[in-house]
């Protein structure tokens, strides 16, 4: 999987054909302890980079366990 953050702060997560096949067949992703550690390390680095690219109003947002997060279709931004 590959995270691509755009200049507006949004992000697109791309999956390879092999990753899509695994998710489709297994309906899950299994991480060994070592793989989970590496994934967590990479994810934390990405989170720090993402935060550096957010506008101030987005960077100041906080999320709680009961927060409602509404999704948006990427095609909604296209004219």
Notes on the structure:
This protein has 79 residues and is mainly alpha-helical. The chain has one domain (2-62). It contains three helices and two strands, in the order E-E-H-H-H. It has helices spanning 17-26, 33-53, 56-59, and strands at 2-5, 11-14. Strands 1-2 form a two-stranded antiparallel sheet. A hairpin with a 5-residue loop joins strand 1 (2-5) and strand 2. The model has no long low-confidence stretch (mean pLDDT 85).
Share of helix among residues?
A: 40-55%
**SS content category:** mainly alpha
Helical stretch tally: 3
Radius of gyration: 15 Å
Number of domains: 1
Question: Per DSSP, what share of the residues sits in E-state strands of 2 or more residues?
Answer: 5-15%
Q: Could you list the spans in which at least 5 consecutive residues all have pLDDT below 50?
A: none
Largest sheet strand order: 1-2
Spatial gap, N to C terminus:
28 Å
Q: What is the ordering of alpha helices and beta strands?
A: EEHHH
- Which sheet architecture does the biggest sheet show? 2 strands, antiparallel
Query: What is the strand tally?
Result: 2
Principal-axes geometry comes out as globular
Mean pLDDT: 85
């Amino acid at each position: 999987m590959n995270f691509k953050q755009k200049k507006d702060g949004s992000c697109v997560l791309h999956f390879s054909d092999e990753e899509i096949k695994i998710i489709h067949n297994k309906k899950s992703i299994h991480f060994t302890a070592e793989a989970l550690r590496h994934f967590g390390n990479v994810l934390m680095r990405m989170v720090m980079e993402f935060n550096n690219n957010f506008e101030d109003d987005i960077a100041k947002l906080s999320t709680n366990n009961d927060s409602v997060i509404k999704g948006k279709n990427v095609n909604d931004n296209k004219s």
